[in-house]
Task: inverse folding
């Protein structure tokens, strides 16, 4: 065999020996949650799908999900069937507008030249407790106006929440909020504006919230349109939460009735003269001193269990391809390569001598 081929084979075997532990080791798996954890099919994320069938569908549980015209409130005009709320700060102005919409019925606008945190809500009834429902805001644009066209910024955010018990207080601990979205470059079918929840009663309240952080110059504007809600009958029902145990009221302590010594009746003698009763000497109880303990309690300290060091420098329990097993494999490959190299050096002069004798014989 060609010596070069032998060396290449030995080198390949050595590399393979190094690679075996890495091939057999458990590689860490990076578990990344999906970008959209809510089970939403692709057709319902399409703007064209949400534009017509979603809000205007007769099966939509949201009343006036297309934000049709309005009624007056203390904060301005609001789409019918919706109510305003102020979460924090100064209240903004509410406007029903006929622009920035995805259906012909208009949109709800929340606007202010300063910062605000407010929104709209609606309570949906006739729900089945422990059944999953989901709702989505198909259109939610946030932009700033500097006396001209709308400019997309990242200082205006939106979010949605739900009270599965049907309460109308946005600050209630029962309200479940989705993450904020401060992305001015997206308006249609934002993942953060889609929410799945189990109903805990026969009604639930949907909150749609707008937040403006920059109150410097310009006008902060938010639009909402195309709100849809339906039951997810394809999902199993959930179990109701356990009731909160209320401790019974503690009874007032009962005082034991006072004990009185029994009355002693003194018999009268035959004469009316009372016989004096000798006084009973008073006995003074002298407290007996208690003997002190002969030894005091010695404080004890918790000591951690010391793991005994392994008797071998390498733990053989980690597998044949690690520890001593890997060392033996490498030593074997190195020994094999050294032997092949020595054999080649010893056989080289002998082959040269035979070649010198055979070449002249060929010419004879």
Result:
């Amino acid at each position: 065999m060609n010596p070069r081929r032998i060396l290449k084979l030995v080198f390949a075997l050595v590399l393979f020996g190094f690679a075996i532990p890495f091939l057999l080791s458990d590689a860490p798996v990076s578990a990344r949650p999906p970008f959209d954890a809510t089970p939403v099919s692709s057709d319902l994320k399409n703007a064209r799908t949400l534009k017509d069938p979603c809000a205007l569908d007769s099966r939509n549980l949201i009343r006036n999900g297309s934000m049709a015209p309005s009624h007056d409130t203390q904060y301005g005009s609001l789409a019918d069937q919706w109510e305003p709320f102020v979460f924090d700060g100064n209240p903004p102005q509410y406007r029903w507008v006929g622009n920035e919409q995805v259906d012909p019925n208009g949109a709800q606008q929340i606007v202010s030249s300063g910062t605000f945190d407010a929104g709209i809500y609606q309570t949906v009834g006739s729900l089945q407790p422990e059944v999953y429902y989901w709702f989505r805001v198909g259109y939610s644009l946030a932009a700033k106006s500097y006396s001209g066209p709308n400019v997309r910024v990242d200082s205006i955010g939106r979010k949605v929440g739900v009270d599965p018990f049907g309460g109308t207080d946005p600050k209630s601990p029962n309200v479940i909020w989705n993450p904020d979205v401060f992305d001015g470059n997206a308006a249609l079918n934002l993942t953060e504006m889609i929410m799945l929840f189990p109903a805990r009663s026969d009604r639930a309240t949907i909150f749609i919230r707008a937040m403006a952080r920059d109150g410097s110059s310009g006008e902060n504007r938010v639009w909402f349109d195309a709100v849809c809600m339906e039951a997810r009958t394809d999902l199993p029902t959930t179990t109701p939460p356990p009731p909160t145990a209320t401790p019974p009221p503690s009874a007032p302590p009962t005082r034991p009735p006072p004990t009185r010594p029994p009355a002693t009746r003194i018999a009268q003698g035959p004469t009316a003269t009372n016989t004096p009763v000798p006084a009973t000497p008073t006995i003074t109880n002298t407290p007996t001193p208690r003997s002190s303990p002969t030894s005091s309690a010695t404080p004890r300290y918790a000591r951690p269990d010391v793991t005994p060091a392994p008797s071998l420098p390498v733990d053989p329990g980690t597998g044949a391809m690690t520890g001593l097993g890997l060392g033996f494999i490498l030593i074997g490959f190195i020994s094999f390569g050294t032997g092949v190299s020595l054999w080649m050096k010893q056989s080289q002069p002998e082959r040269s001598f035979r070649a010198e004798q055979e070449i002249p014989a060929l010419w004879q």
The helical segments are 3-24, 47-56, 324-363. The chain has a mean pLDDT of 74. The first strand starts at residue 70 and ends at 73. Residues 94 and 110 are 5 Å apart (CA to CA).
